[in-house]
Each structure stands twice: as structure tokens, then as C-alpha cells.
Write a structure and sequence with these properties.
The protein has one domain: 2-Layer Sandwich (Ribosomal Protein S5, domain 2), CATH 3.30.230.90. The protein is built from 2 helices and 9 strands. The chain is of the alpha+beta class and 149 residues long. The radius of gyration is 16 Å and the shape is globular. The N terminus is likely disordered. The strands form 2 sheets. A 7-stranded mixed beta sheet has the order 3-4-5-6-9-7-8. Strands 1-2 form a two-stranded antiparallel ribbon. Helices cover 21% and strands 38% of the residues. It comes from Rotaria magnacalcarata. It holds the Pfam family PAC4.
Length: 149
């Protein structure tokens, strides 16, 4: 795990996978964090092989206030792989951002899995720059660990 000193604080700049021997049926859990502005943003990614991906993003309060899901559109026609169905399963805070991010992740990963995303931030964090940096850190992690997705 690599850390760097930023503004006098140690910040985890890499992901750490949980010991694979404790995971069954190929399920893999990865956790990492990024300091964005004055907030420490935590990420937990649970990968179910060939089925779905669950991504929780939040702060140290570790709550789950919303959940959005995107899945590929199943159609007998020759529909484009960029067509997705998405919905918010529960929650009101950041539900639009969670749904939007789940569609972006689905597109990035080729649209072959269901993507669940829960974005849990304080209500005063509703600014586009913070959300953009959160998204950028997630896609950087996906890019660096492409083989796992």
C-alpha cells in the first residue's frame, strides 16, 4: 500500500484487496481512499464474477443513503451495447449522481454487467467539482486495475 504526505496528512494512494482466501465463489473486495479537498473519500468495490459490480463511495460515517443500478438492455434486436436501463432503488440524496455514475461505469466496462452504485456524501458536498474528482479517482482506479474488471 503506498501513502504520500499531503497537507500534513498521510493519504492512501493505492487500493488494497482483501485476502482472496477469505473470499468465496470468486467475489473480490477492494477498498481504497482519496483525499479530495478537505474530505477523505472512501471507496469499496465488490466484484461478483460475470454478474455485477457494487461500488460504495462515502465518508467515514459509512452510511448507505441511496442505491442506483444500471444494467444492459436485453433485446432481441441488434441493439447497441451502449443502451442501458437504470433506476434508483432507494434514497433521495445524490440519487441522480449515483445513477449517472452507474451508467458511466457500465459504459466504461463494456456494458456486460449490472452496476450498483451508492454515493454517500454530506449534503453540503453537492458541488460539481467534488463529484467530478470523486468520479475521476474511481475511473483512475478502474484504469489501473483493468484486469480485475
Amino acid at each position: 500500500m503506498s501513502t504520500t504526505m499531503k497537507n500534513g496528512e498521510l493519504v492512501n494512494n493505492s487500493s488494497s484487496a482483501i485476502d482472496q482466501s477469505t473470499i468465496t465463489n470468486g467475489i473480490k473486495i477492494t477498498e481504497f481512499s482519496r483525499r479530495i479537498g478537505d474530505q477523505l473519500i472512501l471507496y469499496q468495490i465488490i466484484r461478483y464474477p460475470d454478474r455485477c459490480l457494487f461500488i460504495w463511495i462515502g465518508t467515514s460515517s459509512c452510511d448507505i443513503s441511496n442505491l442506483a443500478m444500471t444494467m444492459p438492455r436485453m433485446s432481441s434486436s441488434s441493439a447497441s451495447s451502449n443502451e442501458f436501463l437504470g433506476t434508483t432503488l432507494f434514497g433521495v440524496d445524490f440519487y441522480e449522481q449515483s445513477l449517472s455514475l452507474s451508467k458511466k461505469v457500465a459504459r466504461r466496462l463494456g456494458g456486460q454487467k449490472q452496476i450498483y452504485i451508492s454515493l454517500n456524501l454530506s449534503n453540503d458536498a453537492d458541488n460539481e467539482m467534488l463529484l467530478g474528482e470523486i468520479e475521476q479517482a474511481l475511473f483512475e482506479h478502474i484504469r489501473q486495475n483493468e484486469q480485475d474488471y
